[in-house]
Design brief:
single chain, 609 residues, alpha+beta, Nucleotidyltransferase, domain 5, GIY-YIG endonuclease, 4 domains, five-stranded mixed β-sheet, four-stranded antiparallel β-sheet, 21 helices, disordered N terminus, disordered C terminus, UvrABC_protein_C, nuclease, DNA-directed DNA polymerase activity, DNA binding, exonuclease
Length: 609
């Protein structure tokens, strides 16, 4: 007997993905009753019998499901299913199901609505769940039913981690049913196997208590391939708050090992003890940690800033970024009669022009090389006298330097032609420097000297990136105070007080209340910030950039400012599009830009705005 279904398109087997802790959160980030104890969770324990083929939407011959909660049976779902295809003889031998039994049975498309309703609001439990879930998902996809994506618990996976080889030789359903003295032994019939799985589930839940697993979320994560260290240390996540803030993993001697931030501290810390965490250094850190401290914050911006400050203060060994904000360098135009560029590690209130900060000396020297390509600044490190000439170097003989050492140019002429373009570039309009570099790139491209053009392009990128960044920072840090607010998800207002680019205070007003009282109170208690020299006078550049990103969000409102928040009309920001295209060309992500700089002289001008 056959059941032709040639008119139904084949459906590829869907991927099976075990639920994660993220699925235990509702849309607003609050914890659902998914963190309920296992005793209060409703389970639908399901088993399928199939024709043994691939999960293509057909092939299901029998469905058995039992709904339980707290050890009490709430309902039963059982039916034979016409698979629409021939039943292999070995399946009949294995299960006792015959084609004569299946002929009058309903097809899967008629069974699915009732089954999906039976599954609604429950956790799906199966032994070797990927197999059963794969068949059901394929059937839903084939017949146009949306898969409800229930949380899934695999008893086979739980048993692999809860039971040792000394207790059971394998994790087959029959072996586990015998070990836990199940009232019904599996018989390769769906309902019998589902009832056997119910007893196995209850036996495993009792065993999970010794592993400190008491909730559904814990059980789902326990079933995954976590390391012994993660399983042993997961108690470190107990008792942490579900609020935005910073968490600090500490060693036995109190040293900070790792600092992180999250909108939900408890959920984020718990994720370190799940199978999704695979970083070797974090595994090492977890082995050394003895406790986790939580620092609750008013909102996400305060959490980000506190994270940066804690990392800078403690230099945790397992953090890789933001550990040494003091290790930045600046490009300084000295205050000599014939100024020159110098790479320095700190700012001074000496009236000199500074560009930066740069994360490394190499990047600063790359930007300096771009300046040398554009303006006739001297490159020697000598201190020149306006009275006594000094012998010139090879650069002067090559026409690459105006030779101020030999007094071939006056200090006034040198300041106008060499120093002033650099000062204008970093504080106002960088077009003179950018145009000079672009002219050289075009000339080299026209001569098919593409490698040299690419070198100039990298120098242009380093110089322009630093200039755009510094002008953005300076626009904010020159303001003595700026107060901003944005709505949160529960109807309150997240309030930030920023002084000279440093977060001075943060608060969140209660929902359905006017935010002004909260704002006035937080300003009175805000940190007093004394500015220093340079574009980042009171905080690290990274902190000020985090604040800028928060302020520039479309839903952020500026409440009060102590002055005008402005940037130069013809400042470096107008070259942002050029910078983005040049960076794309350098990284190889934009073939059109790459060819315009390195392949075709006719198109090199397309990099201009």
């Amino acid at each position: 007997m056959s059941y032709p279904l040639s008119s139904v398109p084949a459906v590829a087997q869907p991927a099976y993905v075990q639920g994660t802790l993220d699925t235990l959160l509702s849309a607003d980030g609050s914890v659902e009753p998914a963190a309920l104890s296992l005793a209060d969770t409703t389970f639908v324990v399901l088993d399928l019998e199939t024709t043994g083929g691939a999960a293509d939407g057909a092939g299901i011959t029998e469905i058995g499901a039992v709904k339980v909660r707290g050890g009490v049976e709430l309902g039963v779902f059982a039916t034979l299913v016409n698979p629409g295809e021939r039943l292999p003889p070995f399946i009949t031998v294995l299960t006792g199901i015959t084609e004569a039994m299946l002929a009058p049975a309903p097809p899967i498309e008629s069974v699915l609505p009732s089954l999906l309703e039976f599954l609604r609001g429950a956790v799906l439990v199966a032994h070797n769940a990927p197999y059963d879930v794969g068949f059901l998902k394929a059937a839903c996809a084939r017949h146009g039913y949306p898969w409800p994506s229930p949380r899934v618990l695999d008893t086979a996976a739980v048993a692999r981690r809860a039971l040792t080889r000394d207790e059971v030789p394998n994790r087959k359903l029959g072996t586990l049913a015998q070990f836990f003295h199940a009232a019904v032994q599996p018989t390769h019939r769906a309902l019998d196997d589902a009832r056997a799985t119910v007893d196995v589930l209850h036996g495993l839940i009792e065993r999970l208590g010794s592993f400190r697993v008491h909730t559904l979320g814990d059980a789902i994560e326990f079933a995954k391939a976590v390391t012994p260290t993660q399983r042993r240390q997961r108690h470190l996540a107990d008792g942490l708050p579900h609020v935005p803030g910073v968490y600090v993993f500490r060693a036995a001697d109190g040293r900070a090992l790792y600092v992180g931030t999250s909108k939900d501290i408890a959920t984020r810390v718990r994720s370190y003890f799940t199978a999704s965490e695979k970083r070797a250094r974090i595994s090492e850190m977890l082995g050394a940690a003895t406790r986790v401290e939580a620092v609750e914050c008013a909102h996400s911006l305060e959490a980000e800033v506190r994270e940066l400050r804690l990392i800078a203060a403690h230099s945790p060994p397992y953090n890789r970024r933001s550990k040494y904000p003091e290790r930045v360098v600046w490009l300084k135009l000295t205050t000599e009669a014939y100024p020159r560029l110098s790479v320095v590690r700190s700012l001074a209130d000496d009236g000199a022009a500074y560009l930066g900060p740069f994360s490394s000396r190499r990047t600063a020297e790359l930007a300096a090389a771009g300046v040398y390509d554009a303006v006739p600044l001297r490159q020697c490190g000598h201190k020149l006298s306006v009275r006594t000439p000094t012998p010139a170097c090879a650069l002067a003989e090559l026409g690459r330097c105006p030779a101020p050492c030999e007094h071939k140019i006056t200090p006034e002429e040198y300041a106008a032609t060499a120093a002033l373009p650099f000062r204008s570039a970093i504080h106002g309009d960088p077009s003179q420097v950018v145009d000079a570099l672009m002219d050289r790139i075009e000339a080299l491209s026209g001569k098919r000297r593409y490698e040299e053009a690419a070198v100039l392009r990298s120098r242009l990128i380093a110089l322009l990136r630093a200039t755009v960044r510094m002008q953005r920072l300076s626009a904010l840090t020159r303001l003595a105070e700026i107060v901003a607010a944005r709505r949160n998800t529960i109807g309150g207002w997240e309030i930030s007080v920023v002084r000279h680019g440093r977060l001075a205070a943060a608060a969140t007003s209660p929902p359905r209340e006017h935010p002004r009282p909260t704002l006035d109170a937080v300003r009175l208690t805000a940190e007093t910030v004394q500015p220093g020299p340079g574009p980042v006078p009171a905080a690290s550049a990274e902190e000020t950039e985090r604040i800028l990103a928060w302020l520039e969000r479309p839903d952020t409102r500026l409440v009060e400012t102590s002055g005008d928040w402005v940037s130069p009309v013809r400042g470096a920001a107008r070259f942002t599009a050029l910078l983005n295209r040049a960076e794309a060309a350098a990284s190889g992500k934009d073939s059109a830009v790459r060819s315009s700089v390195t392949d075709r002289s006719d198109d090199a001008r397309s990099l201009r705005l």
